[in-house]
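Fold this sequence, please.
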Amino acid sequence: MGEDSGSRLARPVFWLLIFVCALVLVDTTFFTALTPLLPYYTHVAHLSKSGAGNLVAGYPLGTLVGALPGGMLTNRLGCRKVVVLGLVLMSVSTLVFGWASAAGALDTARFVQGLGGACTWAAGLAWLATEAPPQRRGELLGTALGSAVIGALFGPVVGAVADEVGTGPAFSAAAVFGALLVVAAFFVRVSHKSLPQSPWAMLPALGNRRVLGGLWLTMLAGMAFGVFNVLAPLRLAHLGATGLVIAGTFLAASAIEGVLSPLAGRQADRRGAPTPARLSLAAAIGVSILVPLLGTRMLWLVPVLVLGMPAFGALFTPAMALLSKGAHHEELDQGLAFGLGNLAWAGGQAFAAAGSGALAQAKSDRVPYFLLAAGCLVSLLLGFLVRHGAPQQDPAGQAGSQAVAAGPDHAAGRVPVEGAVRGEGGAASVAVSAHDQQRIGVAAD
């Protein structure tokens, strides 16, 4: 029997959830620690506004390069090995970043951090999505993303501490946490083994509306944080904010986002991903317009950032739920699916981080913010998630259970019949045409 939303998780799944939460928490802690330190590194490394954008873009650029390889490695080697590889890359590069002061070394360290993040996120989320009960997949992914937000909470704090005691000692803690997580990875059970798939298996999945919707929302959220992570701290510093004030602003925003992510996951499981996605997009439009208009006074800007930035972070949970469910429907390995998700997020954030800095330097801060608002508005008006994001009863341990989904397959006369077979092989599914089902029924009679 499948597990209901309120039922207790099996112990192995519970400990896996704790591990994945710790994994993404540590990664985002040292990723977001740069935010309050950006003015410091701009001064130490003699960076222009465009150079600061390139520094922020280094991590997502590394994730962009490592996204598909990370997904393919997860499919070939398994989740545990790729998680360990990502942790090693993250630990070493963060240690280097803490002690470096030259622009080239800093950019390189952030790039390698992104490579490590591509591995840990693809393997960690695929591990969780594969082991999670289908009826609670969105909720557990939302919980993991909420932990990432908690990491984003601590990141600015680490950055503020590093601003006081020095970046070297503060970032050296990453090596310690990374080593502890490497050890912990070998105590987490794996019950499903991936069947190796060719990278070309991703191409048919790109025709699935859920997959496309999840990738677009992921890229849009990445673009938003690329803009805000560059322009917001620099604007606050220009208005006289200290590193502590900048850290507090992002800390408070992340706290709100940490509460919203699991709630968005539950709504995605119960009502479909469009509900939390539409609410987030509507709020994001207003925030993108207000921030540049109120950017002349710190007293107005800080509360708008605190209350507004969570609207973008809340997009990640319905995006991941859509991507995972669409990949399951298309029989695409979850590692490859989240590799595509990494590609979408990294592409959006790297492009927006570098582009927003250069565009703001050439024109004004309003231009990238208004472009972001336009992207959210177009996404909301298109409403491409509405027809294809309704909750669906996935198979949960009963061989021969059937799930009929309206969509392109249904319109073409093909109805997916999925029989979930638990064990080493995971879940097997086969799509049978309506005509063939009728023939099977006649034969059975």
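Residues 1-5, 388-445 have pLDDT under 50 and may be disordered. Strands lie at 414-419, 428-433.
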